[in-house]
Amino acid sequence: MCRWLAYSGSPIPLDSLLYKPKHSLIDQSQHAEMGAETTNGDGFGIGWYPVDPVEKATPGRFRGILPAWSDRNLRDLAEHIRSPLFFAHVRASSGTAVQESNCHPFQHERWLWMHNGSVRDFARMRRDLLLAVDPALYPDIQGTTDSEALLYLALTYGLRDDPVTAVERTVGFVEATAASHGIQDPVQMTVATTEGERIWVFRYSSAHQSRTLFYSRDVNDLRQLHPEVEALRQIPDGARLVVSEPLGVMPDAFVEVPESSYSLIYQGQDKMSDFNPR
């Protein structure tokens, strides 16, 4: 499917995570070890919030249909953009077209959304799912993916007010719609969404065999465990990172997100709980 990462903490250059680690996201675009495919070359995207945010400022975004490893503009931007909160995604299409409007992260106002996984037999359910989108939101849909449909269903169900309930209702609606079509185990997802201050991440599948997802341990704990690692002194206190698969650094730096759960990341803290579709 896809590989993605979400970062929250003191401002850092994007290339410090996209390119510099041994098994960086760009390396994963060619050599994924835990995904459904080894190569994720059907486009890419980054979304970031400014260091000095203007009230209600929307995030910057850059997406392209080239493989991430060969896009020189991405490398140049990643070297020069610093951000306290950013998303990055490399895509492996599950059947929809390779076009810019189908590349993650998707955006609505201040919100960003990215997804790894699929809605099984989406083409059979697409009409029913999209007819449930709020008519006021429907004109904003630009692409043809199941991922963007999930975003607009979540917005319809109240993402801006209560993200967890909105995503639970979205998944519950997709599963109910799938049942009416005789489709089993329709949802496979790891999802990240943010409004620029907090990050919500979800790991769930109808078959309870979800794609991999990991979060970084507290950097202070890692410094105590590995006082010999100079690089840990460069990581800002309170930094949090969520990834589809670890970045090839210390084996104990990342912890797996539990099956059927969600996490809220805010100001260097995280809260984890069960995820239950409604």
UniProtKB/TrEMBL annotation:
UniProt xrefs under InterPro entries: EgtC-like (IPR026869), Gamma-glu_amide_hydrolase (IPR052373), GATase_2_dom (IPR017932), Ntn_hydrolases_N (IPR029055)
What are the recorded GO MF terms, alphabetically? transferase activity
Q: Does the keyword Translocase apply?
A: no
State whether keyword Transferase applies. Answer: yes
The entry's keywords: Glutamine amidotransferase, Transferase
Q: Cite the CDD domains for this sequence.
A: YafJ
* Domain of life assignment: Bacteria
Q: Where is the Glutamine amidotransferase type-2 domain?
A: 2-278
Protein name, UniProt field: Glutamine amidotransferase
| Any Pfam family the entry gives | GATase_4
Region forming the signal peptide = none
